[in-house]
Structure formats: C-alpha cells, structure tokens
Design the sequence.
C-alpha cells in the first residue's frame, strides 16, 4: 500500500493508525486477516461499480468492444464507438439511442449487401405498403420508409423471423421512449438489457 502512495507521488499515511480504524468501523470497511487486511465485501462491490468492475457492466462493455471485427463499415464503427462511450460514462439514455442507431444501420446495410435480400425486401414493401409505390435500389432509398415500416416490410419479405422482428419492434419503442422528452428514467438495467439483446439477437445473428 505504501508503494501505491509512492507511485502517485503522495506521502503515505500512518498505516498502523488508519488500517485498524477502518477495520473497527461499523460496518467495517476492512476485514483483518492473518498477515494483513482485505476490503469488506460491501465496500468492494461499491468500488467495483464505481470503477467499472461490476460483472454486468463488464459483460455489456465487452459485448460492444468485441464487435469491431464484425463491423467492417466505418459508419457502423462510429455508431459503436459512441454507444460504448455513452455506456462507459453511464449516459444510459444516450447509450440506448446509439445502440439502436448502430443496430438499425447494420440491419439496413445487411439488406442492401445482398441482391437476393434486397429483392425480398422489395417484395415485402409491395405486400405491406402498396400505396407507397416504392422500390429500393440504393441505401438512401431506405429513408423513404419509417424504421417501423422497414422492419415490417422485412418481416413480410421473410428476411426476419418472428422473434427477431419482435425484438426490433420492442427496442424501437424503447429508443423512442429514450429519445423523446419524458420523465421516464433510463436505468443501467434497461440499457444492459437493450444492448445485450440487440447485439446478441440482431447484429450477430444477421452477420
């Protein structure tokens, strides 16, 4: 411990005084053991969360940091970087929005990356939205559909199974709740669930 203080340029306090005091607190912050002290469990958990060591936080952050190898497109990587940065600083509302942006952009690019998928998408558009008289040819054409319409057309064109389509519908609703002014609190738990579900069941599934 004295070495830690030395490395950051701070004079070490008198350990023989302060360590017993921390162990004597109610509840104790340190637990005395043979040969030294260890952090009390409650203190360790608080520090884990504060310093980013919470298991759930680490798992979600890892899910995002492992994605770049699967996202060759520069624009997608920018969305990913923003989502990860927001999550790391606990800006959970912004993290939810950026996670959706990443997923939807990946979804649209996946459709346009294969002529067969694009043809199926256009079949779905014709089936669901005949009055639009719309045929997608280039990426920008997707802007003529609302996000919800793009999802439904993809489902109608058999590009999405029932479960994936439902996940996208639910997460779009969550994004809308986060993006529009409201008093709804976006907690870490909500962001964890959304990011994990989108990464595991949409981004990685679509490839």
Sequence:
């Amino acid at each position: 411990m004295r070495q830690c203080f030395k490395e950051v340029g701070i004079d070490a306090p008198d350990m023989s005084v302060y360590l017993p005091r921390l162990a004597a607190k109610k509840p104790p912050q340190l637990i005395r053991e043979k040969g030294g002290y260890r952090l009390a469990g409650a203190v360790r958990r608080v520090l884990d969360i504060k310093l980013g060591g919470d298991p759930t936080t680490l798992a979600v952050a890892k899910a995002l940091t492992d994605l770049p190898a699967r996202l060759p497109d520069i624009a997608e990587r920018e969305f990913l970087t923003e989502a990860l940065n927001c999550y790391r600083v606990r800006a959970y509302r912004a993290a939810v929005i950026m996670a959706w942006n990443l997923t939807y952009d990946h979804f649209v690019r996946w459709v346009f990356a294969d002529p067969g998928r694009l043809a199926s998408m256009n079949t779905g558009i014709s089936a669901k939205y005949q009055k639009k008289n719309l045929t997608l040819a280039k990426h920008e054409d997707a802007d003529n559909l609302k996000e919800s319409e793009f999802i439904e057309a993809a489902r109608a064109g058999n590009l999405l199974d029932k479960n994936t389509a439902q996940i996208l519908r639910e997460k779009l609703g969550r994004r809308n709740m986060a993006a529009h002014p409201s008093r709804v609190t976006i907690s870490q738990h909500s962001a964890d669930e959304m990011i994990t579900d989108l990464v595991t069941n949409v981004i990685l599934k679509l490839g």
User: Anything to note?
Assistant: The chain has a mean pLDDT of 85. Residues 92-112 form the longest helix (21 residues).
